[in-house]
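To whoever picks this up:

The nightly regression suite flagged SWIM-type domain-containing protein as changed. Nothing in the input moved, so I suspect the structure step. Input below, exactly as stored in the fixture:
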Amino acid sequence: MTRSVQALAYARPSALESSQVGASLGLETAGGLTPRGAEAHPRFFAGFLSSPRIAARGLLAVADVAAARYYQRTLASSLDPVVTGNGDRLRFESFSGCCGVYARLDVLQEGLEGERTGHGTTNVDVNNPLRDALSRITADDPLHLRVGPEELAVTTVDGPLVEKKVPLPDRWLRGFAEAQVASAGFDLRAELSAAQAVAFLRSLPRRSGNAARGAQWVVASGSALRPTTRPVPGAVCLPGPERLVALERVLRHATALRVYGPPVADGAPVASAWEVVLPGMRLTLTLSPDAARGFSGEGGVLEALATDEAAADAELVSVLLAWEPTIEPASLAEQSGLSVERVRAALTRLGTAGRVGYDLADAAYFHRELPYDADRAERHNPRLVAARELAGAGAVSLDGAVASVASGDRRYQVRESDGRLTCTCQWWADYRGKRGPCKHALAVTMVRRGATVAGGVR
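Regenerated output under the current build:
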């Protein structure tokens, strides 16, 4: 598994400090991007939290996911949560070490009291002493929040920096992007009241002992959720229900639970999202289709990465993003002169580079710039790399709706029917397109659309 080391440098550790005038939560930032360009320690907010207890527990839930491996549990370093300032809100994001759970806490405008939220994205230090201090907040006494250094003019800091070096696997980067793509295809399937949400979530198993039973499904029944033995219309997959444990941090403060999922076509497991609505905030967990199956292999982004047209469109659209908290494809289409379909493909590509996320509550994309070389996720995607090698080597022969692809000592047939490509390879036989196109179908797409390939590498 290809990986690099992500070095995070903070001016000082994040801390919760008390004084005669009240408590102050200082979240220190590492390097990140803002409208002014790259900054060593950007500052996004200084003001008060409307609900300190809830915000503390929500931040701890996001940190829980960053430190967790829900499959093949091992002791591993975790990447500090990512924070994005979008002008009217703060978003804290993390991804589990096993690549199967994405978490995001949105602290909305009504949850913040102070200066206007800045724009940009960076990592924030969430260390163990800070976690202990946050867990001890039991009252909603005034709590001042600072995200970034105390002085905007600070460019250097005397003394040693606080440095963290953590492994950053390529599959983690791909998973972060795939979770956004999956979410964009979800619809709201159920909304439960606070009491119903608490009852349902507390009824779920806390351990993975039932994993052998396969995918579990739930369906809205009146104002509640009930289990169903098969994925009836409107059902939501609940893969690895024990992975929702992080939501327990905020359950007592929940005002509602919203459940999202894609349309159900057959009995195959699919991803789902679980959003706890809180006063001035939302905490969302997105689960991969199986606890043993991370988002990194889902393949939802591959077709958008296979053509030069999507690359050029993404470059154009990226200029128009402007750190907006909600991005409407129709508006971008009008500004760019592209069709809505091409804008959506461009946003998918930008999501792969960590430049946009997807907010289910708003049913809209949002702009952020993940603070790492996320383009590496595209360059090192195994299927994408293999497809470019096939296309660059002249292994694809076209004959109308049928194409032949020479791979190794075998030749595979790729057929197009109703805009969908099928293949005679084992990947297609195993997944029938449910985890994206195989490398042979991708290579055919590249050749048909004239993608630039040279020696297998763009």
